[in-house]
């Protein structure tokens, strides 16, 4: 790969531009394996089992639940809460660190190096989860924190690169294809790993198959990152604030400048509020669907596994389909339509019959269809509202907002269950997040926000003002 810097914007040659887009897609393909196999499905229950072994001995791995405590800095922690507390700590720490990562990224011409550095550090931590065994829960918790922070940091840089490689008219399509690749790659490795864990071949134990699956997710993340690292070109930074001193001091100075002037972009901030609201609902549906299916509907683990895979593969097609619709009808209109569909889907979940597999799987298909498109188009919409030269900083706020507020939905879900003793009402409460996000998003003047940020108004936006 040449060290000569490319122009600051998308490449002029359409063939070279398309080639760079394809390289960019593969980072979604790479990191989604960790998100699905490790973060979403396998590591939480496995870390809980390891923590319960530490607290209760072998009792933590039997059908008899463990109620023992562990000590963290002298504070007693329930073994069953270790995974949740670890994720919460990683989430809060990410929300604090990501804006600094964004400020640094906007000052460098080597964004692909920064993205890949975070990716390979995170993937090393993910692969090292293979060594979490017995009662060594501290190693598992530490590795999960490192991997989660590195994932968020790499995504800040990755999202910012979208602005550099794609014209405004192309971003809905490029972002949608990236998300689609991610769901396909993550779903493919998850299917292989779930088959391994379920079948337990070659005399392997359940613990062995889980650890091998965790290792495979880390190796997948690391290996596929090579493609975007080699295929994306370096570009000079633009519009940075000149601050003396070290790189860290320069980054902090630019960050202060961005936050000071963020109030000058009210449509950008309004979109960010809308995204925080409806994304909270999306993330809670993803994380709580297995609890709802198992505890409220009485469905077995095999059904939940099938549902997870359905969501992954349908989301691949959904992201591509909604991306095409966005080009025709405007991304904002499609996102708003998807939020209406989210409201209908979550409302329908309230009425699902107990121990009936087919209705639950039909709902999984509907969730998969709206999931990929709503996330992909949200990313491309936000990219249009970001001032030039501050892409990574603003996407760090985007990522930090997502991670820093993503506990509101789970809190509402938990409180509703505590008050009603029913997960049906917990699910129904989530409708409020989609409705609130839809209302706020409807107030966003997208064209005014794009112009204020100094970006070109895409044809699809101008057509449906």
Automatic annotation (TrEMBL):
Tell me how this protein sits in the membrane: Multi-pass membrane protein
Report whether Nucleus shows up as a keyword of the record. Answer: no
Any coiled-coil regions, as ranges = none
The record's InterPro entries line, in alphabetical order, gives: Atg22-like, ATG22/LtaA_families, MFS_dom, MFS_trans_sf
Q: Which GO terms describe its cellular component?
A: plasma membrane
A GO molecular function for this record? transmembrane transporter activity
TM segments? Answer: 82-105, 117-137, 143-166, 178-197, 209-227, 269-291, 303-322, 334-354, 423-441
Keyword Transmembrane helix (UniProt): yes
> What organism is the protein native to?
Jiangella alkaliphila
Pfam families given in the database record: ATG22
Which SUPFAM superfamilies does the entry mention?
Answer: MFS general substrate transporter
State the UniProt keywords alphabetically.
Answer: Membrane, Transmembrane, Transmembrane helix, Transport
- For the Major facilitator superfamily (MFS) profile domain, which residue ranges apply? 267-465
The record's subcellular locations are: Cell membrane
Q: What is its main location?
A: membrane
- Please identify the protein, giving its name as recorded: MFS transporter, UMF1 family
């Amino acid at each position: 790969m040449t060290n000569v810097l490319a122009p600051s914007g998308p490449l002029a040659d359409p063939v070279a531009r398309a080639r760079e887009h394809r390289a960019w897609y593969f980072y979604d393909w790479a990191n989604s394996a960790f998100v699905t196999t490790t973060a979403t499905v396998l590591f939480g229950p496995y870390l809980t089992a390891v923590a319960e072994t530490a607290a209760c001995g072998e009792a933590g791995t039997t059908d008899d639940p463990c109620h023992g405590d562990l000590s963290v800095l002298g504070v007693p922690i329930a073994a069953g809460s270790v995974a949740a507390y670890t994720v919460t700590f990683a989430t809060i720490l990410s929300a604090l660190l990501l804006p600094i990562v964004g400020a640094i990224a906007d000052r460098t011409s080597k964004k692909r190096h920064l993205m890949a550095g975070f990716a390979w550090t995170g993937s090393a931590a993910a692969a090292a989860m293979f060594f979490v065994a017995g009662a060594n829960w501290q190693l598992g918790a530490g590795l999960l924190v490192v991997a989660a922070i590195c994932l968020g940091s790499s995504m800040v840089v990755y999202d910012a690169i979208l602005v550099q490689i794609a014209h405004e008219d192309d971003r809905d399509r490029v972002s949608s294809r990236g998300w689609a690749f991610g769901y396909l790659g993550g779903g493919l490795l998850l299917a292989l790993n779930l088959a391994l864990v379920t079948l337990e071949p070659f005399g392997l134990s359940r613990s062995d198959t889980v650890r091998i699956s965790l290792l495979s997710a880390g190796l997948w993340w690391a290996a596929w990152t090579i493609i975007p690292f080699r295929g994306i070109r370096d570009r000079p930074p633009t519009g940075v604030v000149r601050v003396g001193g070290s790189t860290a001091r320069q980054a902090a100075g630019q960050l202060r400048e961005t936050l000071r002037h963020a109030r000058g972009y009210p449509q950008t901030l309004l979109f960010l509020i809308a995204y925080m609201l409806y994304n909270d609902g999306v993330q809670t549906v993803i994380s709580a669907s297995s609890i709802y299916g198992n505890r409220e509907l009485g469905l077995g683990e095999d059904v939940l596994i099938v549902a997870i895979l359905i969501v992954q593969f349908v989301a691949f097609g959904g992201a591509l389909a909604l991306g095409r619709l966005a080009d025709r009808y405007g991304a904002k209109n499609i996102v708003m339509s998807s939020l209406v569909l989210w409201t209908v889907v979550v409302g329908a979940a309230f009425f699902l019959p107990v121990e009936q597999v087919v209705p639950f799987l039909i709902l999984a298909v509907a969730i998969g269809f709206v999931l990929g498109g709503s996330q992909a188009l949200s990313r491309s919409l936000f990219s249009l509202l970001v001032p030039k030269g501050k892409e990574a900083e603003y996407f760090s706020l985007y990522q930090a907002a997502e991670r820093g507020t993503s506990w509101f939905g789970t809190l509402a879900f938990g409180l509703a269950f505590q008050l009603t003793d029913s997960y049906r009402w917990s699910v129904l409460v989530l409708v409020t997040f989609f409705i609130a996000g839809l209302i706020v998003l409807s107030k966003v003047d997208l064209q005014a926000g794009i112009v204020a940020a100094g970006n070109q108004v895409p044809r699809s936006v101008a057509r449906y003002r």
